[in-house]
Specification:
Elements lengths: L1 H23 L2 H11 L4 H15 L5 H9 L2 E4 L4 E8 L2 E5 L6 E6 L3 E3 L4 H14 L6 H14 L5 H10 L3 H17 L8 H14 L2 H11 L5 H51 L6 H22 L7 H23 L8 H23 L15 E4 L2 E4 H23 L1 H11 L1 H6 L4 H23 L11 H14 L4 H22 L1 H18 L10 H4 L1
Antiparallel strand pairs: 1-2, 1-5, 2-3, 3-4, 6-7
Main location: membrane
Protein name: Urea ABC transporter permease subunit UrtB
Subcellular location: Cell membrane
């Protein structure tokens, strides 16, 4: 008797708890028939039930719609109940779409998938956007507002108005107002709007200032809307096109600065070696490649032994790449280059052969395929600055390139080694007569230039494929930068890199990447005919002779 009473009390507690839960959230009861309706009536019945779920405005419907979007919503054939089913081996694991309670397993034949078409996919995206407008997460609300802006679903207008009234975040509120303006201008409500409301909506879209807003305003201007709406949209299109053209020019300028910084890193070491020793080093690109592969090896070590410190791998790779590439450069100078001074064509052939040998050696060790080099978290992602999109990776490369340039400039101007390099550059016989060991200066200078090329490889590994052919894509550009700026002049290299990078990026939209590079090469040829020593020629008795 006592055992029976205990069972009865337990059942009462469970029933009371369930009743209290449903009473606390009465909408959960209302959603049940709408969820059931998703599985009946074919595509049209599913779309009708989906619209009703969206209009209910209950966030509890979001997991149900997400399951429908993911293809996980099924109908259990035994009782026509809509369930979430996920494959587990040869069977399906069933859960309740609203409460997420486990409903056991069922064979594949016992359930039937609720299928969706393209029309339903668009409706699902619009419904999710409308329902997540009330999310406590500002990021989710912003994404929902963007989804409604793209779908322009009129059924979301009421929810959108309610969300705007409650929104405290200025950025999210602006996104919601832009979505509302898009719905009003493209829907049936446009015919009922006053001139002031139309102007306000077009102003809101103009303030958004992106390509999506321009496409939408163009569509409104060419639609069958009222004359007032079309005139307002056309004026907004003109304003927005001017604004976008301005930001596009700035974006190209940023791209030019970014490409110029990469060229600066690749060419600055060549400017040192070419300027001091007059060596046409065709293996300079392979020094860049060695720096990139050093970065790969450092990252592999961190992945294997200290994955939690992976973000520091790039900082460790910088000195490692400098030392490895610099060491290889010194070996090349001592074993090959030292015997070929004063014979530039022979140094060209010798270093070209070395470049092929180094490429094949790397190909034999690491294979011909690209190697993965990851980016640390602080170099990932992007941010908006007005109408500019700036990636953190490119931004850090620009900062790094200027930092390397400044450090090299200080080293050449303020240290004994830099003074020796400048002395040898300007007058080698006199420097030798003054007791400067020019052979040692040559070796260390070649090592310095190769080490800087290794640093360029670390940077390029973050934006380009790490492969045996990595350096070949930059050797020609590096020589163009050095010759254009003035052989051996660092300031000339800086100006040359930024100028050629910007010219390339401004020509690409009109002439294409290949033709743009050809036009830049023609410009340099014509320029060198007028100024054979480049923009900033070095001065000195030996140089001028």
């Amino acid at each position: 008797m006592r055992r029976a009473l205990r069972w009865l009390m337990a059942v009462c507690v469970v029933v009371a708890t369930s009743t209290a839960a449903y009473a606390a959230d009465p909408r959960a009861i209302d959603l049940r028939p709408l969820v059931q309706a998703l599985g009946s009536g074919g595509y049209s019945g599913t779309e009708k039930a989906l619209t009703q779920l969206s209009e209910a405005g209950d966030p509890a419907a979001v997991p149900v719609i997400e399951a429908l979007q993911a293809g996980d919503l099924y109908v259990r054939k035994a009782d026509s109940t809509v369930v979430v089913a996920r494959k587990a081996g040869d069977a399906f694991t069933l859960t309740d779409p609203l409460t997420r309670a486990a409903l056991g397993d069922a064979p594949a034949a016992a359930v039937e998938k609720i299928r969706i078409n393209n029309s339903l996919r668009r409706a699902i995206s619009a419904s999710l956007g409308a329902l997540t407008l009330m999310s406590p997460d500002a990021g989710v609300r912003r994404s929902a507002a963007d989804a409604v802006f793209k779908s322009r679903d009129a059924s979301a207008l009421e929810t959108l108005n309610a969300a705007i009234a409650k929104e405290q975040d200025k950025g999210v509120r602006a996104a919601m107002e832009q979505a509302r303006a898009a719905i009003l201008l493209t829907g049936e409500a446009a015919s009922k709007m006053t001139d002031a409301e139309i102007q306000s909506a077009t102003d809101t879209l103009t303030a958004r200032g992106d390509r999506d807003a321009l496409v939408l305003l163009n569509m409104v201007a060419g639609s069958g809307a009222s004359d007032v709406t079309k005139r307002s949209a056309a004026a907004a299109v003109s304003t927005l096109e001017q604004k976008l053209a301005f930001w596009a020019a700035l974006q190209n300028l940023w791209y030019g600065l970014s490409l110029g910084s990469v060229l600066l890193l690749a060419a600055i070491g060549l400017a040192v070696t070419f300027g001091v020793m007059g060596v046409i080093n065709m293996a300079h690109g392979e020094m860049v490649m060695i720096g990139a592969y050093t970065t790969f090896l450092v990252q592999e070590f961190f992945r294997a032994h200290a994955p939690g410190l992976f973000d520091l791998s790039i900082l460790v790779a910088l000195p490692a790449a400098f030392l490895v590439s610099g060491g290889v450069g010194i070996v090349i100078e001592r074993s090959v280059i030292r015997w070929l001074y004063g014979r530039p064509l022979e140094t060209l052939l010798a270093t070209w052969g070395l470049s092929l040998a180094l490429q094949q050696a790397v190909r034999s060790i690491f294979g011909p395929t690209n190697r993965e080099v990851g980016a640390p978290s602080w170099m990932s992602g992007a941010f908006e600055l007005g109408g500019l999109t700036i990636t953190y990776g490119r931004l850090w490369i620009v900062v790094f390139a200027f930092a390397v340039f400044a450090a090299l400039l200080v080293a050449l101007k303020r240290t004994w080694f830099g003074l020796s390099i400048r002395a040898v550059t300007q007058n080698r016989p006199m420097a030798n007569a003054m007791g400067i060991r020019t052979a040692r200066v040559d070796a260390l200078t070649f090592g310095l230039g190769s080490g800087i090329a290794g640093l360029a490889g670390v940077a390029l590994s973050q934006i380009d494929n790490v492969s045996p052919n990595l350096g070949q894509g930059y050797i020609l550009d590096s020589f163009m930068v050095v010759v254009f700026g003035g052989v051996g002049n660092l300031w000339g290299t800086l100006v040359g890199a930024l100028t050629l990078g910007t010219m390339n990026k401004f020509l690409e939209p009109y002439a294409g990447a290949v033709l743009g590079k050809i036009l830049v090469l023609i410009f340099i040829i014509l320029f060198i005919q007028r100024r054979p020593r480049g923009l900033f020629a070095l001065k000195g008795r030996a140089v001028e002779a």
